[in-house]
Write a structure and sequence with these properties.
Blueprint (H helix, E strand, L loop, with lengths): L7 H10 E2 L2 E2 L4 H14 L7 H9 L19 E2 L2 E2 L7 H10 L1
Antiparallel strand pairs: 1-2, 3-4
Helix pairs in contact: 1-3, 2-3
Length: about 100
């Protein structure tokens, strides 16, 4: 993989979840395909790879080793309570882009 790839965040996520035996868990191929669909639909100036990954996985799930921790909330359940993400959904991002 080229270090100058415009999809480094997405590709790093892919490398973490794909090995010589294929995808390491269920639905990971689907998530990767969705990330690449969004990446192809918008330029890097419109939405970054980090934002694409956060949109599909939630902010808590976007920790990539060596990239630091991202602050914020997640939409993961803990102790029976749900914490709502402060990140817009994919549909909200699309609507924002259409308004601009």
């Amino acid at each position: 993989m080229k270090k100058t790839s415009p999809t480094r965040h997405i590709e790093t996520w892919c490398l973490k979840h794909f090995d010589e035996n294929g995808w390491t868990g269920p639905d990971l191929q689907y998530l990767y395909d969705k990330m690449m669909d969004i990446r192809q639909s918008y330029s890097l100036e419109e939405i970054s790879d980090k934002e694409i990954v956060e949109t599909l996985l939630g902010r808590y799930s976007v920790y990539l080793r060596g990239c630091g921790r991202f602050s914020g909330t997640s939409n993961n359940k803990t102790d029976g309570t749900t914490i709502k993400s402060n990140q817009p959904s994919y549909q909200e991002l699309v609507q924002q882009l259409k308004r601009q």
